[in-house]
Fold these 3 entries.
Entry 1:
Amino acid sequence: MTSMTLKNSLAGLVAAICLAGCGALPDKPARAALYDFGPGLAAPAAPPASAAGSAPRALPMIALAEVDANSRLDGTQLLYRLGYADSNELRPYGQSRWSQPPAQLLRQRLREGLSAGHTVLGPEESATIARTEGRLPDSLRVTLEEFSQYFESPERSVGLVRVSATLTRSQPGGDRVLAQRSFTARKPAPTADGPGGVKALAAASDAVVAELVAWVDQAR
């Protein structure tokens, strides 16, 4: 075998090895899809005027605390339960995640809903008013207890959201509980997969927010 033939053979062998090595490389991991609750609620209505030509009535203030959640809901995983198999086990989707923890997404939605009829304050704003004006607004605390796609069968599922809420009023002798209640909403998923669960959970969250806002107005 001539030196030229040997060089060509070695070059071909090296190329074949390189091609085989490239073919053995794993595919690039698929990027998880990120979801939130969508663009938001309708713009709040303008507060009514107390009389024709007068300035709009000031909205009552309410302090909205951070929404609490148990450790299972601290992350951004999209969770589901197989009610027909083992409803006690929470399972995560592999390629579907929330853009923020569900408690934060729910608080954003709740703030939007409350702002139609209230001036909504965060913890720091509420503390500032207490320091400068010597008064505290009523406070709403919400705990997210369940937030999952619940499969009743392999083909049928719902978005399940459950929260507990406590409305308190600060008084010289301490906080007084004005009202306390739990809220649960179930909305059907259009498809039996992660994207369907996202739509169902967003709809169930909006239903819970609507009930919460109406309840706050009645309780005060």
Entry 2:
Amino acid sequence: MRDVFTDTTTELLTEDPRTALVLADISAAAFAPAAARHPERVLNVGIREQLMVGVAGGLALTGLRPIVHSYAPFLVERAYEQLKLDLDHQDATAVLVGVGASYDRAAAGRTHLSPADVSLIDTLHGWTVHVPGHPAEVPALLRDAVAGDGSAYLRLSVLQNDRPHGGDGSLTVVRDAGPGAPLLVAVGPVLDAALAAVADLPVTVAYTHRPRPFDTVGLRALAGTEVILVEPYLVGTSSRVVSAALVDRPHRLLALGVGREDLRRYGSPEDHNRWHELDSVGLRRSVDAFLTGALLAAGR
């Protein structure tokens, strides 16, 4: 995904003179050719992430469309105050592109982990959040975000599904178990694990790469009584949105995602998926317990 982002951004810088790119050393080497061609619109501020966002806000106020890029914990967590003040409060907009996701660089330690990034973005007003599940989904999402006029966050990962699923982010049914079946909503790169987890269960599976704004219309059309939400970041991030969308009907919600406990471990992204029970085995265990509870509650 990161390579596709680099290629697409390089193309955009050539195609659209309104596009700018602001870096804080991360990926500077990859964008060196673009910086040589467009030195006035490719700016590397050094290891100063707060300044990076402030510069992007200034560029936006001059009429440019800045893309701001770094690892998720540096881009969102470290520079959160600048996102709040230099972008939102100034009514300036930008396209943030984060890499590292929740624990892609777990081998680098806790400084490079950011399972709470989407939750933090969710405290800001009116942002679009895309969590692509495959590299082939990235170019269209990035181009649409840059062509728009609102603020957006693209969350890129080394984890991916076997194949892309296009669309505008509306819930897409990838497995239909029929009317009234439990609904599992998978966000981004957790889709394949979720499909494997419920392969022999009567569960409808829907996919989205756009948790914000969440497709509440699609959710209401698909949801029965049981809803399972699987997100590759902090557990429960979208629970309030799902619950609000279904507030007028009886429902049970199981939210699965990255746990809040600090594991204090290194390992690989796949290790962390397993430790947070976001692999197919862990997801199946959680889904079985949830659906068994639903049957008991119904007296079956």
Entry 3:
Amino acid sequence: MFSNIATFLAIACSVSSTFSAPIRREVPQEHSHEQFLTTVRASLNLNNPDGIQDPVFGLLGNAAAVAGAGKIADATCLQQATADQAFTNAKAAGDVDGQVAALIYRALERNSGQVGLVTAPCTSIKAKNPEIAAIQQHQDPASTNAAAVNKAITLELAKQIAAVGGNPQDALKSGTFAPGNLNDSTGKGNTCDTLDDPVGCIFTQNLLVEDASADEIDAAVAPSSDS
């Protein structure tokens, strides 16, 4: 089922902000799941051969992401590369929580420039860890087929979390916001982006929309499940 997700994705560019120099932008949400950025940052800093400046850059649109991409030539792949290195480091350290955070981070929605736009899949770089390679980022909830796409991502994420010894129900924390209005000229949609919320404003402001039920997560990771 997850292998079909790529067919729902289309290439889109987005303009956002850098971590160190915020500017006027559309659909800011890169800090909405801050707890996972914090954990991924700690794992990434254990060994960062590509010089990625911070995990937040991987959640920005390409025009801003490139400023923190280090040696990653394709900004479209920065989120995957960040997650992949953080996962590698956490695995080497025997850190299950770090591995789970890297998996969830990989599944988070990236900023897009407009309500309803999708962000492109990474095609130029292959993840070293199959657990990371199995996951794509959530898409704007107002985009075409978003409910089906994001549900499939969450269920696959649950499988990968279970495989490393984490709680598969944590996959639901990768969910995004309620769909925005396609006619919203501001491009903001239903988002939040609070820098000083260590948990993540999508959680503390009760804005998270879960993509699946707890029972569906359990079914996805059950030994007999091959979907």
